[in-house]
Each structure stands twice: as C-alpha cells, then as structure tokens.
Amino acid sequence: MQGVDHLADERNKADFDVGVMKIVWAGSRHAYELSHRFSHLVANDPVFRKDNRPLLSRKELFKASLRKAFHAWKLIKQLRLNGHPSSLWEMFVPAIKAQGSEEQLQQWLPLMNKMKIIGCYAQTELGHGSNVRGLETTATFDPKTDEFVLNSPKLTSTKWWPGGLGKIATHALAHARLIIDDKDYGVHAQVTREGKYVPSEVPRQLSYSTMVYVRQKIVFDASIALSRAVCIATRYSAVRRQFGSQNGSPETQVIDYKTQQARLFPLLASAYAIRFVSEWLKSFYTDLLERLEVNDFCTLPEAHACTAGLKSITTSVAADGIEECRKLCGGHGYLTSSGLPELFSVYIPACTYEGDNVVMLLQIDLGSLVGNLSCLLCQLMENLTQVARHLMKAISHLNSENKPIGTTAYLCRAEQLMQYHSDVLRAEDWLKPNVVVEAFEARAAKMSMACAQNLSKFNNPDDGFQELSPDLVEAAIAHCQLIVVSKFIDKLQQDIPGKGVKQQLQVLCSIYALFLLHKHVGDFLSTGCITPEQGSLANEQLRSLYTQVRPDAVSLVDAFDYTDHFLSSVLGRYDGNVYPKLYEEDICCGYVGGKGSYKHVGDSKIEETKWIEYCQHMDYQNIVLKIGDELFVSKIVCVKD
Amino acid sequence: MQGVDHLADERNKADFDVGVMKIVWAGSRHAYELSHRFSHLVANDPVFRKDNRPLLSRKELFKASLRKAFHAWKLIKQLRLNGHPSSLWEMFVPAIKAQGSEEQLQQWLPLMNKMKIIGCYAQTELGHGSNVRGLETTATFDPKTDEFVLNSPKLTSTKWWPGGLGKIATHALAHARLIIDDKDYGVHAQVTREGKYVPSEVPRQLSYSTMVYVRQKIVFDASIALSRAVCIATRYSAVRRQFGSQNGSPETQVIDYKTQQARLFPLLASAYAIRFVSEWLKSFYTDLLERLEVNDFCTLPEAHACTAGLKSITTSVAADGIEECRKLCGGHGYLTSSGLPELFSVYIPACTYEGDNVVMLLQIDLGSLVGNLSCLLCQLMENLTQVARHLMKAISHLNSENKPIGTTAYLCRAEQLMQYHSDVLRAEDWLKPNVVVEAFEARAAKMSMACAQNLSKFNNPDDGFQELSPDLVEAAIAHCQLIVVSKFIDKLQQDIPGKGVKQQLQVLCSIYALFLLHKHVGDFLSTGCITPEQGSLANEQLRSLYTQVRPDAVSLVDAFDYTDHFLSSVLGRYDGNVYPKLYEEDICCGYVGGKGSYKHVGDSKIEETKWIEYCQHMDYQNIVLKIGDELFVSKIVCVKD
C-alpha cells in the first residue's frame, strides 16, 4: 500500500492484535497463509483485472469471465494449488460424486479434472423448481439401440437455469423420469441391457450428505459476502464526514453517529457470527462423513435440518446486509465504483447456486459465468419449513427413547424452559453468556412448543402444518438464531491467544446476541421470557457496546485481510484515499465539475432539435462554465478532450 | 388482450367492482382516464419499446433513453397533454420556480418550456452531501467585469451527482458560497452591480414548500413502484404451481400457500396504504400553498416534518417490497425478463431523486437518464431525525398555548394515552378502526414521551439527541406509521360507491394495520399497550384476513390498471400466459433444453484448449443431446441455427 494511509489514526486506536485476529477469522494459520497467498496472486495478475467491467456488454463480460476461469484453472495446475478446476461447476461434480456408481465415477471424474468436459446441472425445468417428483422430462429406454431417449414433451419441461454454464457446457447432468416398457419409475438410475430397472447401489443417505456439504459451503460464502460489504461500509464511514463542524474544525466522521453505529456494528458482528457458525458446520460435516463411512446415520437428520435452516437465515442476513451497507454509504454507495451494487446482484443468486469454490478461493469475479440458480430462491421458506418439521418431530419424541440430540438437545429441558423468566436485574447481566443462551433457548422452546400444541388441534396434521406455517417459520428462525448465538459463545470457550483478541470477540458476540434480542423483542416479550424493563436494559447494554467497539471497528474489518482488488470498491480502499480515486474511476455516472477555477467562455447557442446529437459528446473531461449575471444558473459547454 | 386468459378463473372469483376500484386507485375518474389514455398511447408507440433494453450497452441505453425523452416531449406538445417537458428535470425547474426572482423566472422558464435549454441541479459535491452549509464551491463577485467567478478549489468540491443530466445539460443550477470583497456570505443570491449583497426578496418559506411538493411526489412514486412489483408477484403467484399434486391433479398454486400469503398480502395492502397517504399529502400541499399566499405559515413546520417522515418510511417499504416480490417469484424473479431486477435498481435512486413526472406519467423508462441522486439516500435517518425533533418540540409545547396540531394533535392527549391499555377481548375486536388507531396512537405517544423524558436527563440537549438518536428514530417511525394507518381509515370514512369496493378496502386496511402491529409487536408489548394474548388475537385475525382477501387478490392488482408494456414483466403478464413468453423472451440467462425429443448425434471431441473459442457459439437456439449408456450424463453439442 503506497502513499498516505488516511485511516492510520483509526488503525492506531485498535486495542487488539490484528495479526492474530486475521488467523482467527481464516480459521487457522494455514488457511490464512493460503488465502493470503491466493488473493495477492490474483490481485497482481493482469488477467484478473476488473476495472473495465462496468463498460463491457453482456457478451464481452461473459467472454472475459471465461478467460479468467480458464486462466485460474491453468494457474491452479501450474502452481499445484489446493483446489481443482472441476469446482468451477460445483453442482455437477458433487452430484456425480454422490450419486454416481463406481463405474461412472471412473469414467467421468478424470475427464472433469482435466477439463476435457464441462458439465452443467440440468434439474430444474421451466415449470418445475424444487419439486423433483413433478419433473416432466422422461428418459425412455430403447433396448434395440441400448439407448435412452430423452424427451421434454412440453414447453414447461424445458430444462432451465443451468445459467451461464448452459451456454458453454459440453455435458449436462439431466434429471428425468425413467420409463421402461411404458412403466414410469420416477427419477432413478441404472437399467440393465435387458431393460430391467435395478435400484441404485449408492445409499440414498450419501446424496443427502452432498446437500449438507453444499449448504455448509453456502453459509461460509455468506460470511465472505457480508464481511466484504461491511469492510467497505466501515472504512468509508470512517473517511466520510458530514455536519457537526464547529469553528472550522473538520466535520464529524459518519461512523461516530449513533444511528450509523446502530446499523453498521450489528452487521460487523453478524459477519463474525456467520463465519464461526460455518466453521462449526464444517466440523459437523467432517464428523458426519466419518460416521457415514461406518453406516452410522444418526446425525444425518440433524445435519440436514441444521444446514437447511442456517443456509436460509445466513443468506438472508447477508443479502439484506449488503443492501444496508450500500445505504450506509449514502449516495456514493449507489455508484458502480463503490463495488456494492455488483456485490449485491451477484450475491443474490450466489446465496442459492451451489458452491463456487474457485470463485471464492481465488477471489475473482465469475458471477456472470457460473450460476445454477435452480429455483432455490423460493426455498427459503421450504428450508425453514424443513427445520420446523424437524423441531416438531423432536418435540413429539420428548417422551420416547429417541430423545432430541445436538442442536435440539435443549428441547429435552422443554418443561423447565416453559417456566423460564429471565432474572436480569442490571444491564451488565446481559453480558453473561449463560444468561443470553438461556433466554434464546427459552424463546425458541416456547415458540416451538406453542406450535406443537396448536398443531395437535388439527385432525389432519398436513392441514395444520399448512395453516400454521407462518408461525412455524418464526419458530424455526428462533431456533436457528439460537444455534448461531450458541456457536459464537462456544467459540469463545476456546483458547484464543493474542492481545485483546478474545475481548473483541466477546464484545462482538454480545452485540450480535443483543441486537437480535432487540430486533425480535416481540418474541421474547410475548413468550414471557423477559419483561419490558429487561428489554430496555439489553438495549442500554447494546448502546454501550457500540461505543466500546467503535475504536476497533476499522481494524476489525482489516482482519478479514481482503485486498483492494477483491473488494473492488473505491469507498472501501485500504488507505481510505477515497475522493481522488472516486473522481478518476467514476465512469458510470455523469458529473459536473472541473479542477480549479471555471473559465469564462463564449455563449453557446444550441438549437432545440440538435440536442440529441449534442448529447453524444459524452467523452468530455472538463466542463467550463459561462458565468452570466446570475449566480446560480450557469451555462455549461461540453468540450472534447 | 388477445388469446386465452389464464387468470380468468381468478378474475371470476372477485367479489367487487374492479372498474370502480380503478377510479379509487387513480384518485378520480378524470385522473383514471388521463392515466389510462397515456399508458395505452405509450404502450402502442414503437419508439417506447423496451424489449431490447437488456442487450444494449450503457451508451446505447443512454441514447435510447434520450430518444424516448425527446419523443415524449414532442408528443406532449402535439397532443397538448397536461404536462410539460421541463418536468424531465424536476429538480432544476422547481428550484428555479421556488428560489428565483420574478426577473429570473421570466428569463429562464420560457427557455425551459421550449426545451431550448436543458438544466441539471448541481448542489452536491464529491465530499459534501446534504450539508449545504459545508459546500466548498465559491462564487466571487468581480465588479470590474460584472461577473461571478465560480471556483471549486479542491477535489472534494467537484460538483457531483447530477446523474445522466450532467452529461447532456446545457445549463446547471450550481450552489456556491457567495464571496464579496473577501467576505463569505454563505450560500445566497442577489448582488447589486455595485457589489452589495441584498437578501433575497423571496421568502425562505417558499423554498420549503418546494421541498414539500417534491417529497409528496416521492411518496406517490413509492406507491407506483411498490404496486408494480406487487402486481407482478401476485399474478405470477396465481400462475405458478408447486408441490401438492394428488392423484394427477394440478399442483397447488403458489398463492395458496400461507407463507406466500403472509409475505405478499401485506405488500398489496401497503401499496394501497401508501397510495392513500400520498393522496392526502397532495391535498395537504394544496392547502399549504393557499395559506402561504396569504402569509399563513402555521402548517409549514408540520408539512415539513410530515413529508420528510413519510418519504422515508414509504420509500423504504417500497424498495424492500420490490426485493421481497422478486423473492416471491422464486428463481424466475431473478430473470431480467421478470422486470423486477430493473425495477429494483431503477427505484433505489428514484426514491431519492426528486420527482420524475414524465417518467411516471408516461410510464416510460428513463431511469438511466434522469437521476439527481444527491446524497439523499443517507437522509433516511436525517429525515426521521427531523420528525423526531418535531415530535420533541410538540411535546415541549404541551403545556403552552402553541399546542400540537394536525398529525401531532393526538399528543395533546398524551397524559391519557400514557395510561392506555387495549381492551381487546376477541380477534374481531381488532377490526374496529378506533381500536386500531388508539393502539397506534398510544404506542407512538408512549415512545415519544419516553424519549422526551430521557432527553431531559442530559445537560446538553444536542448530546442527548445524538446519544438517543436510535430510539428517537424508532419513535419517529411509530409516529409515521400512525399517520399512514389513520389516513387509510379516514379514506374509508368517505363515500365509496361500487359493489364491494369499500369492503375490500376495509380488509386491506386491517391487513396493513395488523401486519404492522405484528411486525412491531415488541413496541406494543414493551410500552404495555397490548398484552401478549391481544397480540396473538391480532395475529389470528390477520391470518383470517389473508384467507378473506385471497380470492380478490388478482383483481386488486388489476385495479392498478397497468399495461403489460408498463410492467414489462413476463411473469406479470395480464393474461398469465407466462411460460411460452418466458421461453421466447429470455435472452439473458443460459438454458438447456429443446422442443420435442432430443436427437441422437455423433460424438463430438472437444480439446481442452479449445473451449474458450467453443463457447463463443453463443447464438445457438437448439441443443441436441447425445444419449450414451448413462441416464443422467448426456453430451450436448451446440449447433448454429
């Protein structure tokens, strides 16, 4: 980083070891070094430049992304980096890995790894999203030719949404209903040459484990997207000044306004919270794989529900958070050069398409290339409904031998939690981890129990589930938020070295939990978990935590270790030197202005019919003003460079 | 509308007179006829076609928008329509009208009206947004030449954000600090030829009235943007089916899912609520103008605070609502052809730049042309803070002669409202207008009073205001929501003819109010306005209202009377014939598919190094699959048309 650091004052204020925090954020020293090396490699490679993107047409953009993808693949091969090109189409490869037979794996994996084939995932049809059983495409076995005849009989059966990959793929993994001798077997694999259907030897559970893998990746990606936006908004909030000047002193930094803090700092805390819950999910997944190896499926249902729910809430928080960060940057946040509009539009599908390892690993911009959106966006509710079903099942098993485990274990204490009333007396009480966790447990348990009770009033459980689905979704959200809060607190039980690092994380953890409590105070009050007074105390504590975290804010986003290239945001520049770069790089919004004084020029007559042509002089750089006898109406003449 | 109406069943279900509702929505029969005529005129004029927009480069798009603007202007002149071209740059003209002297008006208005000049508004500087006093550009009077020398001394003083107009304007309204003989007069007008500063003869209050005008237009525009998105999402939710098929019956319409209803119907109700509050604001503004004519400034402070607050909350609801509608359309909502992504990105600044009369009136797409963003986005909080100041002032005057009036009149009953506890016993009680209004009044009053009390603890009121600003903002929101709810209820006191029209509006009004109550139940509970049981009853009533409004939903969006051209959304088509058009019009997302059966073709060998070139065959239309001995992995070859 050359030149003056406009944020040096901010960095000097930090009361913790940023270097250690970088390692905590990355997950381990090894992960940090790998990611650091990768990101600088990419930042310094001209093939990965991004600055010309806003002016490219869609087709040029598409081609540029392909060029980058190919270059990334070559790089990975050359440098023997830990990663492989197939991760460019993350849905294609894991699905084959999970559902393919040994023979199929041997045929396709080497081709994929050598990039001899490019595959896309063709499940969704124009008229059918997540309901796989409703797919209309059929695969009819023809024993004469030993081939399958694929047929999409109607317009609505058109395979849809493989995204950019659909345009360049050489192969597709197409989902279809199997037909043999006019009999419809549904979506299945494996038929003998004689035309006999043979159920797959691959256990169905393994395909669930792929889903778990993909979803935990999505949670991880949510932490990256959100932290990226938070990094931009935090740095710019420290640079930008507005109002509050007294006797010629500089105006107040925007980050010092309480309303700014109350919106920004919870997002900073959320980025860390999502990061740590994704770390936990990863270890959960590793444990799951080990269990599956020995045919132990006991944690699979929980993994399934847990990842579905966490995917839903973290991707929503990230998407909303990016948009909020854009607003926190004021008008300039709307500029393409702020990096936020593109981050938002690229993230929206990213929170749903499955994985994009290389994209994130190499921190390049392939958003326009990949994009298996499926209809997963509408799965937000479906995923939460899955969690709700899992919760209702757990409650129904309370009196059986098959008691709730893992993240639902607290429901075993449901009876006790139903009687819970917080005993908080002072604001500081809300800093105690067990006080917070108990309140979140009681809220989640009471909401779930109320749903279970209301469900029992319906003769047909399906009707009840449909009727009460909005309440069930709210209970599922409460449960998922409890998980995130608990895992953040668990993280703090670990041994974390480095001056002040653990203290910072404790502050962020409390901000995260108390912000959620404030946002959902209606839940906590209506379930009787807390009193209005206790709610006010939590709010009071929250405000004082904002003041506490303020001096460390810039360093806490530095800890993400993002390069300026990755952020691709003038507002989020590491050195805070925002305005000159904004002036140079703004290529998308018109502006009127000039360096130094305006010069007097002759009058310019413009005929009304000529203005369309006139406007084509778009490449002017300087604007010269004719000053008449008015102060505030001045003539502008565009001059060519 | 030709062909089959796929939504005919939905339209037959409606239990009210849609024709009359169209007039209610438009505000009057005259307004309806005008808007109907305009929108069909535009829809049938080839110059205004939009279908090629997604593939245009930024420069082409800019030129196309100019062409449309110019054509719109000619049309207005030819047809002597009620509107004038100057409204293309709404900030420039009203500002001159409000702040210009008689002489200035005579010089500039005719030129503007004949489009001999094109003006932009150059207030904001690169480093300064809403803080006009902080502007750095100076205008120094030079008595020798009788000219002002404008100087933007620093990079941060560069005039910024006139948007697209900055590129084509012939004139700019530039804000600068007046300097005479080295004395800095701040931002002011009018200097004599001898170099003597003369305060403007235009009363300062008149410039406030422009702001009131502009803001009430923004609230109106919010109702248009939100209703447009709601129209698309509602129609598509009735077309789209997913899951729930039994014994070969069609799948369930998405609109029948309770979770969909709980997210969609409040937005439908909000569109109507915002519409009616904007109607009220318009009459408030007319009244204000009449008062100002006779130097009666008594309603000005309220108008100022009221429009600031309503602008903030309605634009946020609209922006968030558009995004929510996109999610409600599942994956297809992300397609450009859904119309929602562009609506969102164009609306975001639209909720802040001032007006765009022609754009909305003629319903064309000038989003890329106009765009005086200023730094108004970050004014969300500032505006609400203004409201909060107004509320605190009203409370401080409670015991004086200068008692709160208009929308703050309820604060006169503060003492009584502080004792308020809702007496709701049954769910139906929540349908009574006075029950709802009282609860909202009590909540707003209690929140404001609590703020006033906490403020009084600070020695320095400014410190207190800064420290408590997040709470003050929440109180301001509660106050503004009360206004919207009250004005909706007031509307229902009017004589509204037409079968079932008033009944529908009553349902929507209750949905709006009870949805807000549910969303902010924490406020109502913590202020003791309602008990948790009363909150549950409100929720129960809300659910039953969703069921009630369901059969009328499609007709309620038909009442907006939007043409397919205006919606420019395949998903929101009037006839509901979504899929064939989606297939034809999708030009932005890759897809894999084919009409009819896939054909067997020869193997195609693709070398790994060739794939970049290969992908350039982007203009294929058909995809042919080679079927191997696998079911789900099939080779795809792109063939040129």
Automatic annotation (TrEMBL), chains A, B:
Localization: Peroxisome
Cofactor: FAD
UniProt domain Acyl-CoA oxidase C-alpha1: residue ranges: 208-364
GO function terms (MF aspect): acyl-CoA oxidase activity; FAD binding; fatty acid binding
Sequence ranges assigned to domain Acyl-CoA oxidase C-terminal in this UniProt record: 433-585
GO BP field: fatty acid beta-oxidation using acyl-CoA oxidase; lipid homeostasis; long-chain fatty acid metabolic process
UniProt keyword annotation of Membrane present: no
Highest rank taxon of the organism: Eukaryota
Binding site residues for FAD: 124, 163
Transmembrane region(s): none
GO CC terms: peroxisome
Keywords for this protein: FAD, Fatty acid metabolism, Flavoprotein, Lipid metabolism, Oxidoreductase, Peroxisome
Residues annotated as the enzyme's active site: 354
Residue intervals of the Acyl-coenzyme A oxidase N-terminal domain: 20-118
PANTHER family: ELECTRON TRANSPORT OXIDOREDUCTASE, PEROXISOMAL ACYL-COENZYME A OXIDASE 1
Family classification: Belongs to the acyl-CoA oxidase family.
Record-given protein name: Acyl-coenzyme A oxidase
